[in-house]
């Protein structure tokens, strides 16, 4: 009995540790150092003084396809024109759905008319797990001071239907506008939806 109690306490401590390790809105965003599709290295500290949007993506995911019907590209253009750094993050491991090489990444960016600042590769999943990125898309907004201000869904309707975009609450857009204006997003945390990240 005593042994079982100790095991339960150990499990609870491990669980508490994993919860504590998850990113928290209002706290510094997890640091990262990753390469983009051109081989250039990017670190979060490189973007000090700029607002940053992180978008977890997988071009084969129907929920990503939905938003790349024009919505994601428009968001990218709108906010990069306002000096926001937009990083599209691919955490699919080699051999899994959504894993692509640098040439394919550039081809997709061009063919879809996408406009991120960079497409970055996280094949080992270190960055994705640091952010607790669970779905594609999963969206994050980091302010100029490096503080995580928003994490969650791109909008409020968890479907793969393009026609639902117009009727959804645009969580990511609202959060980004708030951060640009120096305000706190409300809501600051929402439930992400999409395909699971293929770690």
UniProtKB/TrEMBL annotation:
Residues 23-174 form the Thioredoxin domain. It comes from the Bacteria. Coiled coil: none annotated. Keywords: Signal. InterPro entries: AhpC/TSA (IPR000866), PRX-like1 (IPR047262), Thioredoxin-like_sf (IPR036249), Thioredoxin_domain (IPR013766). Residues 1-21 form the signal peptide. The keyword Chloroplast does not apply. It holds the Pfam family AhpC-TSA. PANTHER family: OS07G0260300 PROTEIN (PTHR43640), THIOREDOXIN-DEPENDENT PEROXIREDOXIN (PTHR43640:SF1). This is Thioredoxin family protein. It comes from Alishewanella tabrizica.
